[in-house]
């Protein structure tokens, strides 16, 4: 079915016991040795790095992004699988998807149980990911876990330890894998891809601040004072905070800071309904609502926008372009 390149970055799927806990230390070839190959697939491994995904930096993610583009420059490659830690997989997958302009599929997968564990999920996830990368086209970047195929956009980790770890709380699966076959159920909606960014000397600082009962904008202002060029406000409800936060957002945007507005609620869009510090006022103060994207991916969109060449206006346009249509998927036309 094709030639697949596996880019290994570490995570639980590459983790072994370290005496007091598990950590990534296996290379990609060791990870590949745990899984059977779908018939007709040949695999090449790129050992990019091997770290636990909470330790990833923007430099790691941009290196991964550029590596994906370099691999796809070879027309004989039929698809890519990225093995990745689950904690920040949703952010890396979305960053790659924002810049993905190729019909060939890039699939992110990993594991909830370390390699070599009895009943571990890594080998099955890897098999399904390889099959998906080899047999699908035009779906962008995907996350394949526990027999389900998800679009990168909107998909987040919803379970800390369960095997079925990922979902889009506001959308449906893209497909499923079973009996040696990938069934595509929906076509993800994706905006036009962003231009591949240059590697910055220093990545822009992008912080997240959560609203809650008794919250004030002290931490929001501290982020701006610390040099944040972007801030994600994780609001309550449909995107609501307080008049004090509205004032802080207006101050930040006046200083050229890119502010995105999301919510701590698991599903549903940010919506301009309420005033007195609600989304109506926060958007009027310059915050950009992120639809159904939640904190991690909203931050990724801000980061990608800040890496776009040009001034503040260009970056806000890039952010709005990256957000695109918040609807995760639509049914395929059936003949």
Structure report:
There is one protein chain. With 335 residues, the protein is of the alpha/beta class. It folds into two domains: 2-188, L-asparaginase, N-terminal domain (Rossmann fold), CATH 3.40.50.1170; 206-323, Rossmann fold (3-Layer(aba) Sandwich). 28% of the residues lie in helices and 24% in strands. It has nine helices and 18 strands. It has helices at 28-32, 58-72, 89-98, 122-135, 218-225, 243-254, 279-284, 295-306, 312-323; strands spanning 2-10, 15-17, 22-24, 41-51, 79-83, 106-109, 141-145, 148-151, 156-157, 166-167, 175-178, 181-184, 186-188, 206-210, 230-235, 258-263, 288-289, 329-331. The strands form five sheets. Strands 4-1-5-6-7-8-11-12 form an eight-stranded mixed sheet, sandwiched between helices. A four-stranded parallel sheet has the order 14-15-16-17. It has a two-stranded antiparallel ribbon with strand order 2-3. The radius of gyration is 20 Å and the shape is globular. The two termini are 25 Å apart. Residues 205-307 form the Asparaginase/glutaminase C-terminal domain. The active site is at residues 12, 86.
Helices and strands, with pairings:
Blueprint: E1 2-10, E2 15-17, E3 22-24, H1 28-32, E4 41-51, H2 58-72, E5 79-83, H3 89-98, E6 106-109, H4 122-135, E7 141-145, E8 148-151, E9 156-157, E10 166-167, E11 175-178, E12 181-184, E13 186-188, E14 206-210, H5 218-225, E15 230-235, H6 243-254, E16 258-263, H7 279-284, E17 288-289, H8 295-306, H9 312-323, E18 329-331
Helix pairs in contact: 3-8, 8-9
List keywords for this structure.
single chain; four-stranded parallel β-sheet; 9 helices; alpha/beta; Rossmann fold; 2 domains; 28% helix; 335 residues; eight-stranded mixed β-sheet
């Amino acid at each position: 079915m094709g030639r697949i390149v596996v880019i290994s970055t570490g995570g639980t799927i590459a983790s072994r016991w370290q005496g007091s806990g598990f950590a990534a230390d296996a290379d990609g070839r060791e990870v590949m040795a745990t899984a059977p190959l779908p018939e007709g697939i040949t695999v090449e491994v790129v050992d990019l790095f091997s770290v636990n995904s909470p330790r990833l930096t923007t430099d790691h993610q941009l290196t991964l992004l550029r590596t994906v583009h370099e691999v796809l420059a070879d027309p004989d490659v039929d698809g890519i699988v990225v093995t990745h830690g689950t904690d920040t997989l949703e952010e890396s997958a979305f960053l790659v998807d924002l810049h993905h302009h190729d019909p060939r599929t890039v699939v992110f997968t990993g594991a909830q149980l370390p390699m070599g564990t009895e009943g571990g999920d890594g080998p099955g996830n890897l098999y399904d990911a390889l099959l998906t990368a080899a047999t699908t086209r035009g779906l962008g970047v995907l996350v394949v876990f526990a027999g389900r195929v998800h679009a990168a956009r909107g998909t987040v980790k919803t379970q800390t330890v369960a095997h079925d770890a990922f979902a889009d709380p506001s959308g449906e699966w893209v497909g499923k894998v079973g009996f040696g076959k990938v069934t595509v159920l929906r076509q993800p909606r994706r905006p036009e891809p962003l231009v591949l960014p240059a590697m910055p000397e220093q990545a822009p600082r992008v912080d997240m601040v959560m609203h809650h009962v008794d919250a004030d904008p002290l931490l929001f202002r501290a982020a701006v004072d610390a040099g944040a060029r972007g801030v994600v406000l994780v609001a309550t409800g449909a995107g609501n905070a307080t008049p004090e936060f509205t004032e802080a957002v207006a101050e930040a945007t006046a200083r050229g800071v890119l502010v995105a507005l999301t919510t701590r609620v698991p599903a549903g869009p940010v919506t301009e309904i309420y005033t007195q510090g609600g989304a109506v006022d926060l958007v009027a103060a310059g915050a950009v609502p992120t639809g159904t994207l939640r904190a991690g991916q909203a931050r990724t969109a801000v980061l990608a926008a800040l890496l776009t060449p040009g001034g503040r206006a260009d970056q806000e346009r890039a952010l709005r372009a990256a957000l695109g249509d918040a609807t995760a998927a639509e049914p395929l036309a059936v003949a």
